[in-house]
User: Which sequence fits this backbone?
């Protein structure tokens, strides 16, 4: 605005210096002043609109947050930007960025798989841990050890079945887990197989290593322990008949006794259910099924899942 008034005074002086000296405006000077004033107002309006309508860059983060800003500087490690109406620069690590849509219309995608996929490091036992591409807000279902606590024998078939059952439960409730995405079961097992991990040694592998191997930030780990006992029951049924002789003096009786024996099998399950986020345990529960019948552990898995922190009722 200061520039506007200075320019106006300059135009008036050039337009009619004589009128300025005597402090009067003639009619031509007044009309000229109005024209100049209108032109300058239009100029200021167009300039303001151009500033207000300036297109901004968009940073799309890996957690799906969108930042509208003006990017000032980029490097291999971070991007510096400023928010609209501010001059202060904010630095953001490239590893947190999925894509940048520039105001010019150009887009740039940031792929960190090249940095993570080939990263290897030895664990405590000396095994080489290969880090997969990290996918935020992704949960993986680990193999579920299915162990007879009496004999300490484990079943590979039941371990796969329990893992598949838990995986399908998560898929069925995917709407209740948003924004989490469930990692495909084949991908999970393939990555674990490459690392030499299965249902037998899954409990011996640190969660931090499992997250690196699978490339996820959320993990659900369950375990089913059980014992089998048997109980016998016997039921006896008695029946009899009586017959009176013709002279009503002799009484004949016959008694029949029947005993039925049966054996009942009882399955005593204990379900262990843990959840981890970024290497930290966020949920840990155990539950014993109400009924001692075969496969009653499945109901306990459902019960614990619906009460976990990742489950949101909708």
Assistant:
């Amino acid at each position: 605005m200061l520039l506007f008034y200075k320019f106006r005074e300059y135009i008036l002086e050039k337009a009619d210096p004589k009128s300025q000296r005597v402090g009067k405006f003639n009619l031509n000077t007044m009309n000229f002043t109005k024209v100049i004033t209108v032109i300058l107002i239009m100029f200021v309006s167009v300039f303001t609109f151009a500033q207000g309508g300036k297109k901004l860059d968009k940073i799309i983060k890996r957690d799906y947050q969108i930042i509208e800003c003006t990017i000032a500087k980029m490097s291999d490690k971070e991007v510096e930007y400023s928010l609209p109406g501010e001059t202060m620069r904010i630095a953001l690590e490239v590893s947190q960025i999925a894509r940048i849509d520039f105001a010019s219309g150009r887009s740039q995608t940031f792929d960190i798989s090249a940095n993570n996929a080939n990263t290897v490091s030895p664990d405590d036992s000396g095994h080489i841990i290969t880090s997969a591409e990290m996918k935020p807000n992704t949960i993986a279902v680990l193999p579920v050890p299915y162990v007879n606590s009496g004999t300490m024998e484990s079943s590979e078939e039941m371990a796969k079945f329990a893992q598949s059952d838990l995986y399908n439960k998560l898929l069925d409730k995917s709407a209740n887990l948003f924004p989490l995405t469930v990692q495909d079961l084949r991908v999970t097992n393939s990555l674990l197989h490459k690392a030499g991990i299965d249902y037998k040694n899954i409990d011996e592998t640190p969660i931090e290593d499992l997250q690196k191997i699978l490339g996820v930030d959320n993990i659900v780990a369950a375990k089913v322990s059980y014992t089998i006992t048997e109980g016998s029951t016997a039921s006896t049924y008695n029946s009899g008949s009586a017959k009176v002789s013709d002279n009503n003096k002799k009484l004949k009786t016959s008694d029949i006794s029947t005993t039925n024996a049966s054996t009942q099998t009882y399955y005593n399950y204990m379900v262990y259910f843990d959840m981890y986020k970024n290497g930290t345990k966020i949920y840990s529960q155990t539950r014993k099924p109400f009924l001692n019948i075969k496969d009653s552990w499945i109901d306990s898995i459902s019960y614990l899942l619906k009460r976990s922190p990742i489950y949101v009722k909708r």
